[in-house]
Amino acid sequence: MNTLSVDHLLGIKYLKEADLQLIFETADHFKEVINRPIKKVPSLRDVTIANLFFENSTRTKLSFELAEKRLSADILNFSAAQSSVKKGETLIDTVNNILAMKVDMVVMRHPNPGAAEFLSKNVDAIVVNAGDGTHEHPTQALLDAYSIRERFGEVAGKRIVIVGDILHSRVALSNIFALNMLGAEVKVCGPKSLLPKHIESLGVTIEPDLKKALSWCDAANMLRVQNERMDKSYFPSIREYTQLYGLTLPLLKSLRKEITILHPGPMNRGVEISSDVADSEHAIILDQVENGVAIRMAVIYLLAAKLIKPQ
Amino acid sequence: MDAFDQPIKTLVLSSPLAEDLVADPKQDYIFDASKIAIDAAFISTYVSFLGTIDSEAHSRVLVAQNETLSLFPETLVVVPTLGEAKDVIDMERIERDLGI
Q1: Considering only CB atoms, which chain B residues are within 8 Å of A39?
Q2: Which residue of A39, A69, A289 is in closest CB contact with B98?
Q3: Do residue A175 and residue A52 come from a single domain?
Q4: In CA terms, which of A56, A123, A223, B76 is 20 to 30 Å from A170?
Q5: Is-contact A9 A303, C-beta < 8 A?
Q6: CATH (domain of B27)
């Protein structure tokens, strides 16, 4: 297979395993490009991409923008803070105004779950979901799985624990879909109040004890505590959360094995992860940042290839 | 000032390259050699000059005529147009911001 089975990247759940493998193989190629002195290829010359961020996210936006620049695409940046959205314009109106500028692809982050899918059904452009509420964040899951593959050689058969605020995390949901699809075994670990009901129906098991979860796994993905998404208090205090679910170097050293640590960023150092763990050789957090650009280049390149219709 | 807001300085180079050329190490630079002939002496002097403003936190991009690009060592960032030079600096600024 050398094309994706989908026309948009809306979520991992819409992809097939072969799609993930194709994205990874394409990202391998782009990682070589990144290591050249001139880190740019002309693949997307004449393709215009609009980055629509209705929610703040400096790092994801920069990562997409860097990926697009490396592919030589023309870029249009839009953030809700500067837009007519604040004056009551609808999502469709906003996007149609932007598409009138002959945009080929839209990369969108939106606070509402399902916004990317809604958009894909209502506009004539390729849509890439850069995070929709608490629903999915597919490129983050792809780069996490890719980083695990890079570390271990493959994802299949690996034991991965996702720790923290699963309830509010689009990263967790997309990770579960991707890791299961690739044949990994997945556990979630966190306060009961931050685990969605029926989470086991997604093919994961629950381990409430962090040390037991870490002793079981090959890699742990430490999620950020998302205070901004919590409309009420889900645990008594940050201090208690850190004591029960914060990853520290003494805890890591107490395990009888080496494990790999991931974090989607931005980190709350001293809350879900201590600085000495984040900066240790166990952590592949900087690799994730670099892999994020290669994965986004791969996704954009593979979707843009569909713009070239066969004669 | 945010790194993204800093202006990119452009310095038009002459041939032979002046040995007492100076630049601010705390700025991102485009060195424009697109209108001059490139030879081994120029490249050697340019490499020595870059050593005087060495900085991992800033970008230096040389613009030279397309047909001369193969003369430069691969470690140097050399592109054929001012537009591409600006793109490279934009990319390097994002990379530094992301910590890559």
Answers
A1: 91
A2: A289
A3: no
A4: A123
A5: yes
A6: 3.30.750
